[in-house]
Automatic annotation (TrEMBL):
Any one GO molecular function term: ATP hydrolysis activity
Keyword Zinc-finger: no
Domain AAA+ ATPase: 270-408
Keywords assigned: ATP-binding, Nucleotide-binding
Pfam families given in the database record: AAA
Cross-referenced Gene3D superfamilies: 1.10.8.60, P-loop containing nucleotide triphosphate hydrolases
Keyword Nucleus on entry: no
Membrane spanning residue stretches: none
Protein name in the entry: Uncharacterized AAA domain-containing protein ycf46
Database matches in InterPro entries: AAA+_ATPase, AAA_domain_protein, ATPase_AAA_core, P-loop_NTPase
Similarity field: Belongs to the AAA ATPase family. Highly divergent.
Amino acid sequence: MKKRNLEKEIEILIRARYPILFIESFEENRVEESLSKIASARGKKLFCWSCERGIYEYGTPLHSRKAIDEKTKDVSAALQQVVDIVEPSLFVFKDIHPYMTDPGLVRKLRELAHYLKTSFKTVVLISPQLRIPVELEKDITHLVYDTPDIQDLQELLNKIIKEVHEKANLKITLDDAIREKLLDAALGLTLNEAENVFAKALVMDTKLGAEDIPVIMAEKEQIIRKSGILEFYSANETFAGIGGLEAMKEWLKKRQLAFSQKAKEFGLPAPKGILLIGVQGCGKSLTAKAVSGLWKLPLLRLDVGKLFSSYIGSTEENMRRAIRLAESIAPAILWIDEIEKSFAGVQSSAFSDAGTAARVFGSFITWLQEKTAPVFVIATANSVEQLPPELLRKGRFDEIFFVDLPMEIERKQIFVIHLQKRKRNPADFDLIKLCKESEGFSGAEIEQCIISALFDVFARKAPLTTDNILESLKETMPLSVLMKEKIEELRGWAKGRARNASYKEEIAVVYEQERNIEL
């Protein structure tokens, strides 16, 4: 829920005499500012509590004599103070969640909730972690305070630019396009994190511009790594590093600007995602990394196996946390590799794990269908037998692409890419022969053949030649032979069900030939 809507919602709940609100947020200052406005508008006082300061009136500076109340440092004594103060007030308790395991405190909160309904007082609990005992579920209302939106970040950026100009006499001018890119990159950061990273960019080069976007992305990478649920991948791949798959590349390039403000004003919705089904080693995972580089968006990898926990309810909570984290730094790309393995066994979940896998999968596909945050999901799969049918339903993904073994012209591109990567000139090799001899090879198998040939010539201290690669190709048994039946079955399934990632008609490969002249 957006900040301004949430402020209104909180005010309504306070006026309706909801006794205890639990606001889930890392940003105590932002929440306190909102509550201060509400308290002022309703003619109420705002008191805060922390285990270090006890109860104090909002706005009391830390160095003031009244900043610390030793008597109310104990949370139970502080809750009693809520009863003793008779004037209409809001009471903010910070980080109370570790105390929620105390039966005495739980009992006190239940009795306090009953009392507060007949008073003009409300207790607000602020914590970054939701922890509500089952006894209090009916007495506490849970709210999530989202990270700053574009307008909040815009106000912060304007404030920083103004302060820099006044204090350092440094004039910073940003055109609309650069400003939008900076603000989009900062989405998902707290105001404190955004302020820190803008200041860091200014310190580094005394200006703000498009070149500072990687600095902001590095800050987001820290957030992801600290979570322990998602993995952050650096965008170091490009479409130029993918051989073939031109139909899919074109589809993705058309959606490159879909997350911009102009696209929203034009009426375009943010794209939801794609499902890539196909043969192993043909560029599905590489595509996810390349899209991140093309769109200049953070790439997050979700390992579903990491979500599962032995504690009851923890697995479902981990999935919710992963989704919230991805949405908090949106626009972003969420990559789920080999999704069929991640959700294998969903059908038998009721018998194998008391339904945990089924509930996690249900949460995920519901989010896929209904999500409004600009999180583009790229899911890959090597097999369709294990894919739950619900995942393939229209509306979950924008498109389902089938990635087949590379055609001849695509294999030529793959050879060129991997020879150039290893500092070899493709013109020195017989690409026509290599393409013909590598029929049925995947891109990954072609790469490994080149690497194998390089090892051989390095040991002999000889240059790499076409014959070395051909020898390596002959020694390799490709997947298309080992799993011929499976691949044919996959192709049969994809026909009419999925869009081909390559153009269907193989483009003719034109080779230079010597002209025979009769003399």
